[in-house]
Amino acid sequence: VFNVALWKGVRSGVQRTLSEAGGLALADDLLIRTQVRLEFYAPRGRIQLIMEDIDPGFTLGRLAVERERLLRTLAETGLLERNGRLPVPQLPLRIGLVTSVGSAAHGDFCAELGRSNMPFTVLERDTRVQGEGVADEIAEGLRAVATYGPDVVALVRGGGSTADLVAFDAEAVARAIAELPVPVWTGIGHQVDRSIADEVAHTAFKTPTACAAALVETVQVFTNLLEAMRS
Q1: How many CB atoms lie within 10 A of CB 136?
Q2: pLDDT band at 205 (very low <50, low <70, confident <90, very high)
Q3: Secondary structure string (H, E, C) spanning 78-132
Q4: Per-residue model confidence as pLDDT tens digits over 7-48
Q5: Comparing C-alpha atoms, which of 19, 53, 51 is closest to residue 163?
Q6: pTM for this prediction
Q7: What is the C-alpha separation between 117 and 83, in angstroms, rounded?
Q8: Could you please report the per-residue DSSP string of 23-90?
């Protein structure tokens, strides 16, 4: 096992290469292939590897292969569409929210519900959405909030790079959503790709605001129906 050094002068170029290749960024748990230079420090007999470049195609390829493998496994075990078959209550006013409390995503979601002036109850689970070990935290957050009997669980996060959103492609998160006895709606702020969390969820929206707006619309449809029956 060798330590690999990445000097500051090279790091910016590596980050730029990753970003231009597909919105990637250096992050924990990201598999990479690098070009290195071998240095030997004779006085201490130490060998060190100096990172000089990176192959973004390798990382993108590994992510794509792992994504397809997991989607295939979920489909074969009946988990891919399991949450999507759960019924959504006609009046989903009790919402379980799994997100980073205090983040822009949290603020946008709650503001959209608040503007409706409808009597929503939001059961919040403060959960990290980026960093080492975060997939297990998200999975645990989903399971925890579901125990309080919400009508719908909302999993939301703002936008970010491919590396920032890698937790939402994790098997732990996918299985937690699939096995939850409550419909899960996602609002993960990326406009192009769908995460595996989106694929497994009952309903996926592009942003936290759109997710909240859909909840408002669902309640509004029901209230309009009641008003029509009274008239």
Answers
A1: 13
A2: very high
A3: CCCCCHHHCCCCCCCCEEEEEECCCCHHHHHHHHHHHHCCCCCEEEEEECCCCCC
A4: 787 888 877 876 666 556 676 666 777 777 788 777 777 787
A5: 19
A6: 0.76
A7: 29
A8: S----TT----EEEEEEEETTTTEEEEEEEEE-HHHHHHHHHHHHHHHHHHHHHTT-TTTGGGSPPPS
